[in-house]
Design a protein that fits this description.
This protein is an alpha+beta fold and 177 residues long. It contains five helices and eight strands. A hairpin with a 2-residue loop joins strand 1 and strand 2.
């Protein structure tokens, strides 16, 4: 294989992701009409052949670290799910920091997966679903470890008002009492 090029048709105009990168103008998140990966091969005779492979997803950047900075290109007719897209972003870009002051590998991994899931939900579902997912993850990560077994908690957040928290015996225990 001699060369790989990813071509995107966006707003009727064909662009090469690689050319955009060399001009330091990476393609940002968008929903192109078409994505094609072009493999250029040279056989033993020196003849050049192009193999075109349609794709549903491509990334506009090659060296980005955090999901919100990734330029994600997803064709308009793609059936990719938010979970699949989040996994792709994780596999393509996650690299843990080895800095001595960085969080543990597991924490970095969890944070990255949540950020990728949030971006995927925002792109493929809605900003509202991304927000719900972020709040749910925060509660699971930071609140549940402090809630004793056999207890239910209700948390109400009303804009700028103080947060209301009610903790009581679990409903299943009330039903048996």
């Amino acid at each position: 294989m001699k060369k790989v090029t990813t071509r995107v048709v966006l707003e009727g105009e064909e662009r090469s992701i690689e050319e955009q990168r060399t001009r330091h103008e990476p393609l940002h998140t968008a929903r192109p009409e078409r994505i094609t990966v072009v493999l250029e091969t040279v056989d033993s005779d020196g003849a050049v052949e192009h193999v075109c492979i349609p794709a549903d997803v491509a990334f506009g950047d090659d060296e980005v670290s955090w999901p919100e900075d990734v330029g994600v290109l997803i064709t308009e007719k793609s059936n990719i799910t938010p979970d699949e897209l989040a996994d792709l972003m994780y596999d393509a870009y996650f690299y843990p920091s080895e800095d001595c002051e960085a969080d543990s590998y597991e924490t970095q991994q969890d944070d990255y997966r949540q950020a990728a899931q949030s971006k995927a939900l925002e792109l493929l579902a809605s900003a509202e679903e991304a927000m719900v997912s972020n709040v749910r993850t925060a509660v699971q990560r930071w609140v549940l470890p402090h809630l004793r077994r056999g207890r239910d908690a209700t948390i109400r957040i009303h804009g700028d008002k103080p947060i209301e928290i009610t903790i009581e015996p679990a409903e299943s225990e009330n039903a048996t009492a």
